[in-house]
Specification:
The structure holds 2 protein chains of 2 kinds. Chain A is mostly beta strands. Helix content of chain A is 0%, strand content 53%. The radius of gyration of chain A is 14 Å and the shape is globular. Chain B is mainly β. The termini of chain B are far apart.
């Protein structure tokens, strides 16, 4: 069965320090993977996506993620956190199932806190 | 929010009442989705529709109903059978696969029970 696990429910960093949000997935096939961000009282916004091209994916706002098939991971990183990065982040895997190509599986979410 | 309008932004439901959440899109996307978000959880799929006049149950469809009479509209009804309806509801659309599988999300509706 397909699943996605975000290993940390809360991450707290100081402004200017690196960010690491961890995501592991289980899949029998090479999946499509996404990171979405949700700011308070706003809808979800796509940060980046991996769809079997380059394993290092660059997204918006300085974020990037590396697809590691051997580790079934897709961790999100940013070299230097900004106060505006404080939000909830979702790792998402696209499910490949017969007759069910529209289904996505969302991780539980990681709340990123950025301290001044 | 990418051409997706959800209304209302806040909705209150009385016990035993059915309420309908609106989702309208002007992106000409074929696929539309309804997700429910609870604190500390990821989004869970309620219903989705790949094309007009067709829809499929998601993971937590019980207590909900939908219709897809028009490409632009995918309303979600929360029925009285849904015993725990308080949540944040997100509508999403997706273009055809050759446009990169990107999901577009509305701004959401917060539903609370009085």
């Amino acid at each position: 069965a397909q699943s996605v696990t975000q290993l940390d429910s809360h991450v707290s960093v100081s402004e200017g320090t690196p960010v690491l949000l961890r995501c592991n997935y289980s899949s029998s096939y090479s999946p499509s993977l996404f990171w979405y961000v949700q700011h308070p009282n706003k809808g979800l916004q796509l940060l980046l996506k991996y769809t079997s091209a380059a394993t290092l994916v660059k997204g918006i706002n300085g974020f990037e993620a590396e697809f590691k098939k051997s580790e079934t991971s897709f961790h999100l990183t940013k070299p230097s956190a900004h106060m505006s990065d404080a939000a909830e982040y979702f790792c998402v895997v696209r499910y490949y199932g017969s007759g069910n190509t529209g289904k996505l599986i969302f991780g539980q979410g990681t709340t990123l806190q950025v301290k001044p | 929010d990418g051409g997706i309008t959800q209304s209302p932004k806040y909705l209150f439901r009385k016990e035993g009442q059915n309420v309908t959440l609106s989702c309208e899109q002007n992106l000409n996307h074929d696929a539309m989705y309804w997700y429910r978000q609870d604190p500390g959880q990821g989004l869970r799929l309620i219903y989705y529709s790949q094309i007009v006049n067709d829809f499929q149950k998601g993971d937590i469809a019980e207590g909900y109903s939908v219709s897809r009479e028009k490409k632009e509209s995918f309303p979600l009804t929360v029925t009285s059978a849904q015993k725990n309806p308080t949540a944040f509801y997100l509508c999403a659309t997706r273009a055809r696969q050759n446009l990169g599988e990107k999901l577009f999300f509305g701004s959401g509706t917060q539903l609370s029970v009085l």
